Amino acid sequence: MKLAWILWLASVLPPQSADSLCLSTTVYLEARDQSVRGQQAVAEVALRRRDSGLWGDTLCDVVTANKQFAPSLVPPSTRVANPEAWARAVTVALEAENNWALPAGQRKEIVPGASHFAALGIASPSWRNAYQVATIGDHTFYKVQSLEPRRHDS
């Protein structure tokens, strides 16, 4: 499967299914060679960003925001070519969504407060001196800014 096809599919799926597909794709592209814990941490950052509303209202908006996650950084011709890693990424993404649906105090957070992450071996972001929450595998997770869930007026 090519990334372009996956993102097209996400554009025609119902929103919840699309978000699960976009999160699975991001976990695969960003962390397929990392531990399950590292994959969970990547998913958590995307979910935290979605809740803030700063990068979009859906997980697909968040992970395709310009130069934020792999879906906007790698060529559309990139293939999802490892079926075992894909299956693991889907499982991690679905479990992360279920965990994140719990009330904030009941969630299992891997990287509390982390709003960003980087593989410092290949990237040197301007915010790399921000507060480090954790390093898991090749990724270092940062609290660059405090992300609060957006308020919904009723």
Notes on the protein architecture:
- With 154 residues, the chain is mainly alpha-helical.
- It contains six helices and three strands, in the order ααααααβββ.
- Strands 1-3-2 form a three-stranded antiparallel sheet, covered by helices on one side.
- A hairpin with a 2-residue loop joins strand 2 and strand 3.
- Helix 2 packs across helix 3.
- The longest helix is centred in the middle third of the chain and has 18 residues.
- GO terms for molecular function: hydrolase activity.
- This is Cell wall hydrolase.
- It holds the Pfam family Hydrolase_2.
- Keywords: Hydrolase, Signal.
SS-based structural class?
mainly alpha
Measured between the Cα atoms of the first and last residue, the distance is: 42 Å
Identify the overall geometry. globular
Strand order of the largest sheet: 1-3-2
Oligomeric assembly: single chain
Strand percent estimate: 5-15%
Radius of gyration: 15 Å
Q: Which blocks of ≥5 consecutive residues have pLDDT under 50?
A: none
The helix/strand order is: HHHHHHEEE
Quantity of strands, as a count: 3
Provide mean pLDDT, rounded. Answer: 93
Main sheet: strands, sense, barrel:
3 strands, antiparallel
Helix content: 40-55%
Counting DSSP H or I runs of 4 or more residues, the number of helices is 6
